[in-house]
Amino acid sequence: MTNISLNIGSESHHEPPTNWKTYFTFSTDHKVIGIQYLVTSFMFFLVGGIFAMILRGELITPESDLVDRTFYNGMFTMHGTVMLFLWTFPSLVGLANYLVPIMIGARDMAFPRLNAAAFWMVPVVGILLMSSFFVPGGPAQAGWWAYPPVSTQNPTGNLINGQVLWLLAVAISGVSSIMGAVNFVTTIVKMRAPGMGFFRMPLFVWAVFSAQIIQLFGLPALTAGAVMLLLDITVGTAFFDPTQGGNPVMFQHYFWFYSHPAVYVIILPIFGIFSEIFPVYARKPFFGYKVVAVSSMLIAMVSAIVWVHHMYVSGTPGWMRLLFMVTTMFVSVPTGIKVFAWVATIWGGKIRLTTPMLFALGALIMFVFAGITGIMLSSVPVDVHVNNTYFVVGHFHYVLYGTVTMGMYAAIYHWFPKMTGRMFNEGWGKVHFWLAFIGTNLNFLPMHPLGLQGMLRRVASYAPEYTFWNVLASLGSFLLGMSTLPFIFNILISWMQGEKAPANPWRAIGLEWLISSPPPVENFEEIPIIINGPYGYGQSEPLTANLENQAIKTAE
Amino acid sequence: MNIRLIFNLFLLMIGGFVITITSIFIGKQAYFWLPPQAAAESHLIDDLFSFLVTIGAFIFLGVTAVILYSVLFHRANNYDFSDGPHIEGNITLEVIWTAIPIMLVLWIASYSYEVYEQMGIQGPSHLLHLHNPIHIQAAFAEATETPAATEIEIETENEPIELEKINVIAKQWAWVFQYPETGISSTELHLPSDRRVHLALQSEDVLHGFYIPAFRLKQDIVPGKTIDFEFTPIRPGKYSLTDSQYSGTYFATMQADVVVETPEEYHTWLETAATQTPSPAKNQAATEYAQNHNEKIQTGWETVKPAAPPIVNFSG
Q1: What is the SS3 assignment for A199?
Q2: Nearest CA of chain B to the CA of A527: how many Å?
Q3: How many CA atoms lie within 13 A of A339 on its CB side?
Q4: N or C: which end of chain B has fewer CB within 10 A?
Q5: Helix, strand, or coil here: A342?
Q6: In 10 A of CB B259, how many CB atoms?
Q7: Confidence of residue A166 (pLDDT cuts 50, 70, 90)
Q8: B306: phi then psi, degrees, rounded to nearest 5
Q9: Which residue from A150, A289, A555 is facing B88, i.e. has the nearest CB?
Q10: 3-state SS assignment for residue A378
């Protein structure tokens, strides 16, 4: 029983990561690939952050006086693209890559080489996007939505232009994500350790599973739209060209059919992270485990029928506006269930405010705020007013920074000892949290009044009456930029010379905490046999039947 | 019942009461976060928004209060390494907690639906295509409450009221307004107050968006299509119209003034404008394109050439 080989596609031997150079080579170890994803995406996070600060630098005054309009337009296009396709997606894939096989008791992903190939496409996407700054006419300037006909206008007349490179990058990123999704779904379905039924999987695995299913049905639409647009620009087809009978609104359908569910691809793993972190630091079992597991799948399903809420004012008929309003609002039901479950998990616990817990709590509070403004946006009449204004920008930055990035930080701190075998510095972690929490709110809260007043997104200059809130937002963005410094130093120094981490520094329950820190090459010498659910806090039963010497000893 | 439980229930009631009062207060404040209400539709939208803010504030404060209470009063002390109570779930509580959001969603959705139906901002052609019998009880009815509007005939189902028809043309990067009945054109949008106006929106090149924050109204303009759009301005004054759908390099400059005036002033304006000879209007995009810029960082990247400044009778 213990020696069943569950590694479907890996007959090759993995090289253990003996030194840091391993992380720059082609490796098929899911843990090495996970770290590669995390480090690469964080580099691009810094690039995207610098772009954001240039944007906020321009917007600190009403006039367009820092950078010219073409550069500004390129900046917001690249900021959005880099942050989505090179930070949030890859960083979460990296985390899942690292954790999912361990959490389900597998030795690796189902297809280790496919996994490595999917990762190495990320730097290619990054190089393509960055090189677009050096082609005549500069990078793409049509926003990360790339709506035609603006995106098909090509003033330089060159075939190789920023927009073409952008579309290639997005298409490659889509292929990479589809490869990842196939791998994750197969791994989770096929490679769970004996005894790990679906309802014994950690909630993070449930979340990743649901998110990757969205990738499978959604990404083909985006990739198809990108390819059609590429053909329109390069060889002169007219899928979206209204002067030749094409329909530009059709592109919006292709685009949003994936790009709204994409938000759930990003947020579901964060929900999973919350679900892993709260029980540990509140020392309580997860409240309502089954309902929350199922609610992830429910979100994945509903996500397929919400995309038109981005297009209420795009010339869609009234019935469509109202239909999609109702489906969009229904996303708040499974989400509300989750929020309730987290709050109930914390309630009455024995809470320890460690750095990961602080980040998770801060992210949860900001997520509740984002959820409320999300309901407002789903309501057609309110959306008619605030659509394409800073209200929307504020809303989704509360999702993407307040929740996703803060949740990512929580995850990195929480699993840092496991990944590196070293402890991080708790004091600097807290400094990082407070700078980031204050910075996020100072940056993104002022965007809501701006949007309600009517300030549009993507403008390089604005009416003077919007100055006050813009100055606050810009200061917030600079603070947010600074907040990454304590993180970088803490991580670098702790990784090199932090205190050695024990196997289970947080006394957490879960397979990843049964193995040494950092984990051995193929995770488990013996494949564990699971005999219990993943959140048995307050109960002294072991999690596995065969790893007694390492089984969790809960406090009496 | 022990003292502790009574105390907790008392605390919960007080907390609930404070949060309710605060939420209602915040909901009332919501009106001040918005621009002046210059169209009949804006009243409907603002009421809906205030309602959503009230509910939202209640949820946000409720959740935050519970989290803060836990963090403050359920902290483990330094030497306590024991676990919390082993509570895995509570079916009754979970059912209630699923039912509440469902009810809330249905409530919010039906209220939003009602408001949208009253707005009736999409022109009649959309309804015709769909054979949709939804009765558009236009927000115009709202406008009749203002004293100035009393003499205006009220719309009935069979007899649509006389609409003020205006063509709106958007291009990179200028707005042109044509008044087909008098044959004049302008780069400033003049509208009569307390009259339902019908706009035919057209774009000459890319997607644009018609957006007047003071009216709370927005509609994308798709090239190759004429989009009907209706509303009722009710408050005389000067407002700004902006392009709400990103339209390329000089997107931010694509602004126009909207002047709402009494029907008499409006007609006077139409007559005066008709006497003026058409001349090129001022256009910021064209000016910037021709000039050297004053930005600190200039890339010199090529841009789409702005359309020629529009030739109009009246330039704002």
Answers
A1: helix
A2: 27
A3: 29
A4: N
A5: helix
A6: 18
A7: very high
A8: -60, 150
A9: A289
A10: helix
The one-letter amino acid code at A422 reads R
CA–CA dist A511, A193 (Å, integer): 10
C-alpha span between B251 and A460 (Å, rounded): 8
pTM: 0.92
Token digits of residue A533 = 């659910």
Angle between helices A261-282 and A248-259 (to 10 degrees): 20
What would the pLDDT profile of B259-272 be if each residue is shown by its tens digit?
A: 999 999 999 999 99
**Directed axis angle between helix A162-190 and helix A69-81, to 10°?**
10
Q: Residues of A numbered 371-400 whose beta carbons fall under 8 angstroms of chain B's beta carbons: which are they? A: 372-373, 375-376, 379-382, 384-385, 387-389
- The radius of gyration of chain B's CA atoms, rounded to the nearest angstrom, is 27
State the SS3 of chain B: CCHHHHHHHHHHHHHHHHHHHHHHHHHHHHHHHCCCCCEHHHHHHHHHHHHHHHHHHHHHHHHHHHHHHHHHHCECCCCCCCCCCCCCCCHHHHHHHHHHHHHHHHHHHHHHHHHHHHHCCECHHHHHHHCCCCCCCCCHHHHCCCHHHCCCCCCCCCCCCCCEEEEEEEECCEEEEEECCCCEEECCEEEECCCCEEEEEEECCCCEEEEEHHHCEEEEECCCCCEEEEECECCCEEEEEEECCCCCCCHHHCEEEEEEECHHHHHHHHHHHHHCCCEECCCHHHHHHHCCCCCCECCCCCCCCCCCCCEECECC
The Cα A434–Cα A398 span in angstroms is: 16
* Cβ-Cβ contacts under 8 Å, B228 against chain A: none
| pLDDT number for residue B156 | 41
Instruction: Count helices and strands (H / E) in chain A.
Output: 18, 0
Query: Does B242 touch chain A if contact means CB atoms closer than 8 Å?
Result: yes
- As for the ipTM of the complex, it is 0.92
Question: Which residue in A464, A473, A460, A465 sits closest to B294, CA to CA?
Answer: A460
As beta bridge partners, residue B167 has B178, B200
Query: Which of A77, A369, A456 to mutate: most B Cβ within 10 Å?
Result: A456
Q: B275: burial class by Cβ within 10 Å (0-12, 13-18, 19+)? A: exposed
- pLDDT tens-place string over residues B63-86: 999 999 999 988 988 878 888 888
Q: Which residues, 6+ apart, have CB-to-CB distance to A133 below 8 Å?
A: A74, A139
| Least confident segment among A295-299, B148-152, B223-227 | B148-152
Interchain proximity B33–A449, CB inside 8 Å: yes
* pLDDT confidence tier of residue B3, bands split at 50, 70 and 90: confident
* pLDDT value at A512 more than 60: yes
Position B146 scores a pLDDT of 44
Residue B40 · residue B231 · CB < 8 Å: yes
Q: Kindly determine whether residue B67 and residue A364, on different chains, have CB atoms separated by under 8 Å.
A: yes
How many percent of chain A have pLDDT more than 70? 95
In sequence order, the β-bridge partners of residue B233 are B39
Q: Which residue has the higher pLDDT, A349 or A1?
A: A349
Mention every residue, 6+ apart, whose C-beta is less than 8 A from residue A525.
none
Q: What span, in angstroms and rounded, lies between the C-alpha atoms of B124 and B169?
A: 20
How far is CA B282 from each of CA A488, B201, B254, B255, B311, rounded to the nearest angstrom? 51, 22, 12, 12, 10
Query: Which range is least confidently modeled, A219-228, A229-238, B156-165?
Result: B156-165
| Of the listed ranges A307-321, A449-463, B125-139, the one predicted with least confidence | B125-139
Neighbour-count burial of A539, counting CB atoms closer than 10 A to its CB (0-12 exposed, 13-18 middle, 19+ buried): middle
Cross-strand pairs, B164: B197
Within 8 A by CB and 6+ apart from B286, the residues are B306, B308, B309
Task: Provide the pLDDT confidence category of residue A5 given band limits of 50, 70 and 90.
Answer: very low
- Using a CB–CB cutoff of 8 Å, tell me whether B98 touches chain A: yes
